[in-house]
Amino acid sequence: MKTHRLGDYGDDIGLLQRRLSSAGYGVPITHLYDDATVAVVGRFQRAMGLVDDGVAGPKTLGALANGRKAPKHLSGADLIAAAQTLGVPVAAVRAVNEVESRGNGYLPDGRPVILFERHVFWTQLGRHGINPAPLAPRYPNVLSETHGGYSGGAGEYTRLASAELIDGAAARESASWGLFQIMGYHWKNLGYSGIDEFVSRMETSETDQLDAFVRFVSADSNLLSALKGRKWAQFAKGYNGKDYAVNLYDVKLAQAYTKYAALLKEAA
Scanning 50, 52, 102, 171, which has its CA 20 to 30 A from the CA of 162? Predict the structure, then answer.
């Protein structure tokens, strides 16, 4: 499913507006994703228990088609609870959810979204007592000192399966998991009993994936301080690495925070 947002136009937007109207959420059929459509989509999302960001992505379109939210999907209440746990404004968590999350924590087949990192696997094998160098020529797509080799989507599970033939735990530790792209090797620092519990929680729900994000931020005093102070460049650098500015993560976070802060003030 495509994702529709403010400024989009065309037949798909007209169809969305008609479906919203048929579901009892009246909106003019303009074929333009305007402010009125954003507001109605947000109202529908709140009624369904979804995060009410006004963006019609796969979760919202699925709920519109099925008349209910999928049980694994994140809710607005989840974001409020996360903000309370971290001691930060709800708008800050919503901004991170918009900019840093993948938008959907699961593939269409129900498995958690992952991204396998072959350069991390190189390091993790060493930590498990396995010398990666002799193995690398046989597994160049999953084992290298440099990042790359990505397949995307379900293809990442094919790469993960290849890596698991070498060492299962190291392989699972070498992938990022779920909405917030938390690397598996953080499992111990985040309080999980092992990599298998971490993966199991990522498979359970987006609420559990959000919990991993909360644990990740809570475990890093600099990251938590940056989020509390809305120091977006500092937060983006800590979360995305030194190249954060290339993708304007700090700018996007600041803009999203300003948007949600205004919306929540209006709601209050």
Answer: 102
Query: Within 13 A of 253's CA, how many CA atoms are on the CB side?
Result: 25
- Tens of pLDDT, residues 80-139: 999 999 999 999 999 999 898 877 899 888 889 999 999 999 999 999 999 999 999 999
Confirm whether 44 is domain-assigned: yes
Q: Do residues 103 and 57 make contact, with C-beta atoms less than 8 angstroms apart?
A: yes
If one counts every other C-beta atom within 10 angstroms of the C-beta of residue 24, the result is 8
In a domain, 1, yes or no: yes
Is the pLDDT at 239 greater than 90? The verdict is: yes
114-116, strands of its sheet edge to edge = 114-116, 175-177, 182-183
CATH number at residue 48: 1.10.101.10
Higher pLDDT, 135 or 64: 135
Residue 66 lies in a domain: yes
16 in a structural domain: yes
Domains contained in the chain, number? 1
As given in the structure block, the two tokens for residue 79 are: 């974001």
